[in-house]
Amino acid sequence: MTTVLVLDVPENRPIVEVAATAETVTVDRMGPYFKVSAPGPIVIDRRETGCRHAVWYSSVAGLLDAKITQWDKDAMRLEAR
Q1: Which end of the chain has fewer surrounding CB within 10 Å, N or C?
Q2: Total-model pTM
C-alpha cells in the first residue's frame, strides 16, 4: 500500500481532491491529516491541482510505506517502498 499524509489546510485540499479522482485512491482522515492511499502508485498532476510551486513542494507531511519517485513542477509520483 502506498500512503502519503497531507496536512488538512485549504491550500492543500486541491492536491487531495485531484488524487482522489483516481479509481484506486482512497482518502481518509488521520488526526489533522488527509491519508491518501492506493494499492499501487499514486500520481498527482500539479497543473490539475492549480497549486503554486511553494504549496506544491511543501504539501507532503509524511509517508507510510511509500517513497517519492517523482516530485517536480509537473507531477508527484509515489510508489510502495
Answers
A1: C
A2: 0.94
